[in-house]
């Protein structure tokens, strides 16, 4: 096991209930003993927003899940990490899919204190602004929600200065039916963004305008993620003895994302119609050439990655 995830809020799945401070206190020594990071879905329902009527209005959905929910959840986790350090366990805490810019100062403070505290964000929080999300487009629904453009700019600053540690897909493989695409009912729609295939071109398109190099992107989307998952002896760099997981990337070609391009099981994405720069031409997995110019060459050869069994 490479990590354990808990929700601080109702996950929407009956068999996956949320945890509270007492559960976190019980889990931390066990996770610390095995040096497994504690991944937290950081939204804490502080009440007052459950009466908001959402229907197909994006702004109503946004108002129903305020930044305060994330901020409070992250403050709670910093307290928990402090306690864990004081007890001598020093459990690793990781905030998954961060959206609220207001929580960045709290994360920075935790790092300054020497807590083992990390945080990630995702392409959708870095490339989409709520001002541009039309009503009734359930494909844009995720939790925590995509916020306004100023929030997005602040997340980029945090990527630049290291308050955010890396960028992950958080890909949602949800079916079109569960997304309620036909009715546009954001309230009923499953949360999650489907865009795994486009993560690299989406991030590259934005990042190159902000002065990032491809070396920076490999650090943010490969090396640091491998290191975090404890896979840094086999993945995340081009070195002798490491897995030969490569891609050949054309950083200059621009094109429009279409549903027809999608290789995911369900061909839906909120990015259809968006122009991006950068194209994956070839992919190699452990030295095997598996993808080239829109075609897959082999049957799937991916393997489960279990701690200590690489
Ligand atoms: Zn989550």
TrEMBL record:
Its EC number is 3.5.2.5. Keywords: Hydrolase, Metal-binding, Zinc. Pathway: Nitrogen metabolism; (S)-allantoin degradation; allantoate from (S)-allantoin: step 1/1. One of its GO terms (molecular function) is allantoinase activity. Residues 14-288 form the Amidohydrolase-related domain. Its cofactor is Zn(2+). Transmembrane segments: none annotated. Belongs to the metallo-dependent hydrolases superfamily. Allantoinase family. NCBIfam families: allantoinase (TIGR03178). This is allantoinase. It comes from Colwellia maritima. The gene is allB.
């Amino acid at each position: 096991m490479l990590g354990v995830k808990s929700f601080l809020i109702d996950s929407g799945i009956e068999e996956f209930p949320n945890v509270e401070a007492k559960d976190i206190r019980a889990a931390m020594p066990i996770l610390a003993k095995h040096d497994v990071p504690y991944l937290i879905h950081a939204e804490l329902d502080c009440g007052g927003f459950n009466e908001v009527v959402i229907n197909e209005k994006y702004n109503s959905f946004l108002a129903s899940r305020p930044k305060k929910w994330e901020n409070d959840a992250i403050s709670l986790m910093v307290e928990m990490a402090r306690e864990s350090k004081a007890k001598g366990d020093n459990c690793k805490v990781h905030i998954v899919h961060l959206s609220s810019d207001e929580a960045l100062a709290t994360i920075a403070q935790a790092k300054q204190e020497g807590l083992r505290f990390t945080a990630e964000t995702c392409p959708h929080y870095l490339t989409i602004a709520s001002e541009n999300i039309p009503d009734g487009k359930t494909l844009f629904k995720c939790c925590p929600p995509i916020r306004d453009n100023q929030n997005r700019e602040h997340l980029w600053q945090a990527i630049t200065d290291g308050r955010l540690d890396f960028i992950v897909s958080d890909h949602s493989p949800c079916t079109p039916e569960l997304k309620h695409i036909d009715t546009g009912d954001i309230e009923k729609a499953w949360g999650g963004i489907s865009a795994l295939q486009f993560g690299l071109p989406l991030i590259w398109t934005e990042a190159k305008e902000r002065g990032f190099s491809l070396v920076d992107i490999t650090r943010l989307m490969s090396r640091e993620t491998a290191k975090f998952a404890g896979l840094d002896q086999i993945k995340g760099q081009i070195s002798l003895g490491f897995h030969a997981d490569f891609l050949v990337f054309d950083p200059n070609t621009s094109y429009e994302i279409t549903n027809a391009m999608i290789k995911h099981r369900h061909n839906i994405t909120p990015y259809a119609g968006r122009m991006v720069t950068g194209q994956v031409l070839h992919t190699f997995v452990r030295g095997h050439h598996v993808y080239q110019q829109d075609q897959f060459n082999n049957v799937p050869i991916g393997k489960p990655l279990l701690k200590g069994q690489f």
